[in-house]
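Acyl-ACP desaturase
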Amino acid sequence: MARALTQLELLQELAPVAEENVNRHLKIARDWNPHDYIPWDEGKNYPALGGPDYDPEQSQLSEVAKAAMITNLLTEDNLPSYHRVIADNFSMDSAWGHWVGRWTAEENRHGIVMRDYLVVTRGVDPAALEADRMVHMTNGYDPMLAAAGRADELEEHADELGILHSVAYVTFQELATRVSHRNTGKACNDPIADKMLQRIAADENLHMIFYRNICGAGMDLAPDQTLRAVTDIVTNFQMPGAGMPNFRRHGVLMAKHGIYDLRQHLEEVVQPVLRKWRVFEREDFTSEGEKTREELAAFLEQLEKDTLKFEEMRDRALAREAKKRERQAS
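Predicted structure tokens:
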């Protein structure tokens, strides 16, 4: 395997690519205001100002839509954790620093508009939502370490975790979030929520393109090293909400009802990105890189099998639920 580049060398070599992509992003990104997407005329004061308390009957969202909205919002709420990781692994100088600030500012809009929507429309219990926010943000989250499967080996592998793991993770994470937001919008059965979440998803797609281009340049610069990072991320991927209150229950609901499931993860997130990088067509890996590629291929083959098993189980569960509803209705 060729000598691994240091984090400083990677940052220096990739700096021109970062600058090019920051400029590209600024040219095509659309500024928007969170307050423009909120039906303010539906709002009422809460008890502290003499209004009625939240009642579950006030919500127009299904249980699936509630689970998805809460999960997506708490993910956005934990932005300080993601900012810290990105800032630690990038440089705060030049284009790197400008991107970290711009990305953070754009992502913050998402949490603002989603919370305003849920509070104004009384879509979920705002007190419970705030309690969950406090727990999730207090715990924090290091998505790169979790996704790279190194959390229990931090001291031994700390030097391996840097910009390549970071940009690989956020490439897949931003695309996964885009899929989740778009499908959540549809599940809300509300044109206002759908429009809002489509706007957020458009941001996430542009963010994904920035990170995908940086990681792609890393693949050209240091093929073996970058593929190792990508394989670590893909084989240990977790959505950024892992660890938040009720994450497992909400995740099961979201997967069961098509918000974000294994098939979408494989076919709409992982495979398109790997194709863009031409991971299985490249001829610039050393023997070590070839071993890593074989490891990745084996994982994807198993993921396809796991996806089929999940779909069979889900279809049976949904069929049982449909029969139960028919019996109750008759």
